[in-house]
DUF938 domain-containing protein (Altericroceibacterium indicum), 198 residues
Amino acid sequence: MKQNAPAALRNRGPIADVLAQELPAFGTVLEVASGTGEHVVYFAQRFPDIHWQPSDPDEQARASIAAWANDEGRQNIANPIALNAAGDVWPEIKVDAIVCINMVHISPWAASEGLMAAAGRLLAEGAPLILYGPYLEPDVPTAQSNLDFDASLKLRNPEWGIRPIGAMDRLAQANGMERKKRVAMPANNLILVYRKRS
């Protein structure tokens, strides 16, 4: 039932170090595209005063999330919900932050559009949307490994691919969000922190 993603074990610590600077001390954090569930159980342990709401559109992924959470016995992880970022139906719940790891490049652009629209609607002024993954930057050479990865993604699905930061910023602006931070991460990844404008 439990699924494993080797990358989650490698990147969860560095991601959590950034989350420690950006998340509120307590409240509810919605994780979009939780995948195997390994990230959310680690974050729930690292941030016990935060209530974590995992989500994923895939039924097998949700079963894995539930299995990991059950084994960990954490009381601050809610049951995973079915959520398609590209869909029109989002839970109208009060969230104090949204975290999304490794979804933007492995999904159609409509998923990023849905994510930003929901963040603009659900988040209060100053609340963060935190994205992790590879991005293309102007005036910054793209690592060959990311170029190769981008090509492989587009072979798997022409709607996938590593997105330009500028495109993400424009999408955020259109939904009342503004990028406040860019953090370089291991393996040529980035964390982008957007916050709801006043």
